[in-house]
Every structure is written in C-alpha cells, then in structure tokens.
Amino acid sequence: MRHWHPFIGEALANIAHQGRSRIVGLIMSTHRCTASWEQYQEDVATALETVEVDIQVDFTEPIHDHPGFIEAQADLTDRCLARIATCDRSDVMLVFTAHSIPVHMAEQAGYVEQFERSAQAVTEKLGHDRWTCAYQSRSGRPTDPWLEPDISEAIGNLGAQGIKDIAIVPIGFVCDHVEILYDLDMGAMQASVAAGIRQYRVATLHDHPRYIDALADSVLAVATT
Question: 71, 73, 117, 195: most buried by Cβ count inside 10 Å?
C-alpha cells in the first residue's frame, strides 16, 4: 500500500527475499487517472531503487470495460432493484458514482470516459435506461475545480425533478470503506431524506465471482507474455 503497512517497499523486499525475479502489479482501481494508477507505478519504481532489488514488474490494464466486471456490477445492481416493488422498478434512477478528482487530472487520463462507459455498459446489460453519473468524496482546496456534480447536489437536483427512488451504484469502488459507509450510507442518505427521495445502495464488488474472473484474466494476460 502507498499509505499503510505493508508499504510497497516492504512488500518488494519480502518478494526479493523469496527469490522471485518477476511480479505482476495488479492495481485495484478500475478507472485510471494519475492518482489511482500512475502514482502507484511511480512508487513501485522508487521503491525498487530504494530497496535495491532486481525485480521485473509488469502491470495489468484497467478492467473498467471487462465483461466480468460489467456482469458483476449488473448482477449486484439487479439484486438491489429486486428489493423494490416490480411496478416501481423501471422508474428508479440509477446514480453511478466514482471518486471525484481534479478536472485537469481527469482530462489527462480519460477518467470520465471510462467511468461513463462502465455505467452505460451496466445499464445496457440490465435494460434499464434511467441513469446518471455523479462524483463523491472530493478533497483538496475548495477553489480548485474537481469533477461534478457532487452526489449530494445530484440527489437534490433529482428530487427537484420529481424523482422518488434512486439506487446508488458505487461503480468506482471495489469494496466497502469510509467513502462508501459514510459518504454514501450517511452523507448521501441525509441528502436523499432532505430531497424526499427513497435511497437504495447497490453493494460493492468484494469477492463477486465474475469480478474475480476479470481480475484473473487481467493477471493472466500479463503473466503469460
């Protein structure tokens, strides 16, 4: 990890101690930008120099459009929609979320296009045509432009449009953590209550079998070359 144990340098030193000479770097972010992708590659390169080990590192590609990733997201979204009465299900607005990043960073990486492509693929898989995208968990200086709309602002706008039910799909996150359990399940929920909207939240991927298949495919594509 970049910010906690085991740090990248610690992991590389341990791998070298095991006698390994090549590893596959599997970056868990599904949508690519400098913060979620290149920064990890740079930190690996720096750690290799710091611990002075001779290891070849090859990285996998993002899986934002991999069929397994899309199928897993569609399955979890379908399970969430199944909690809603059949007569109301087609009216539910799917709100896909990803982590907000600085606008200039997004423009350099195609981050928005990847995010929107993932969301569209899921809705096509489900045959559900009511959907939108929003961003969450921004940080940094308030004066710096970050990707919008923020999830709470988006929810307020949907309420003003008369939308009564939304299902938030955190497609930019692969597991539960504070940006899901607090930012969505508490912060976004408060915005929904204020807007008079019933909010449902689609589960994150965790160990969904089709997601794991997608990860395995991405590793094998690198490991077998």
Answer: 73
